[in-house]
Amino acid sequence: MTVVERREIALVDLLDRLLAGGVVITGDITLRIADVDLVRIDLNALISSVNAQVPSPFEESR
Amino acid sequence: MTGLRYVYAVCRPFDTPLQAQLTGVGGDPPRLLTHHGLVAVVSHVPEADFAEEPLRAHLEDLDWLTAVARAHQGVIDALTTVTTPLPLRLGTVFRDDSGLRMMMEEREESFLRTLDRLAGRVEWGVKVFLEPVPEARAEPERKPASGRDYLRQRSTRTKSHEELWQKAEAFATQLHETLSACAEDSRLHAPQNPTLSGASGRNVLNAAYLVPRSESEEFVERVDRTKDGIPGIRVELTGPWAAYSFAGEETTTSGEGA
């Protein structure tokens, strides 16, 4: 087993935090973009759009 | 009045100025807006991109989202060097300063409470992956001599895969217990989709731990010590992060699902 410490922040780790973490503000004049359900839907859309361009990770050899 | 207000974080007032050349979302340098005992960190962003409709559309554009996420993180990172920021969810936008002030006024007490809880703490991310089984690829293609032979090979393969999977789960559970015990709080994020992460192997654990800055070295060492574990299992450490995963109201159970 190896412990990998990444230097560069992976987008997916960032999105875990920026889209699922952080304070969610509701109930004021904020444009309520940030509710979790919406973000889930968006991520699904993202994943399918990524699917088209990114080769399968299962072929990678490490 | 130009544009909308994109808010990165709320903090207590701090003395050290932010780096002068820091740019935020949309290239706009982050500005500080003070209201009572709180400071909001804000960029002015164009309505054409950040009003509700265009923002919704942009969120599905990976390049756009990446740029905004990196810029957001850049500002939070800079803030982390001078204070403990309370990060807001990506895409928190107000029409103008007065709307923002109103929100700060309303939530002042809860912000202050959360800021106290997070002061001097950072977040560490720990992920466990089950590596794709190399033997399955190295030793394969021995042609089964018969149907029974084929079935036996197949069942051996399935069994060894299942065993590995169980081992990985047991390992992840144990690691999570150990790390939770030396962290102040923990959250489980949903396992990452390999297509989006590009990481090899299957993500078994995707957790975040809230750790005092002063105890971070020890925490990292503890994660490091898991090196002598099971072959086929990979542990990844990320951080230190601002306490994104712990910015919500305090709860004892994880709200992020697992």
From TrEMBL, chain A:
Keywords for the protein's UniProt record, in alphabetical order = Gas vesicle
Single GO term (MF) = structural molecule activity
InterPro entries referenced in this protein's UniProt entry, alphabetically: Gas-vesicle_GvpA-like, GvpA
Stretches assigned to coiled coil: none
Q: Where in the cell is it found?
A: Gas vesicle
Q: Which GO terms describe its cellular component?
A: gas vesicle; vesicle membrane
Family membership noted in the UniProt record: Belongs to the gas vesicle GvpA family.
Q: Know the name of this protein?
A: Gas vesicle protein
| Annotated organism of origin | Streptomyces griseomycini
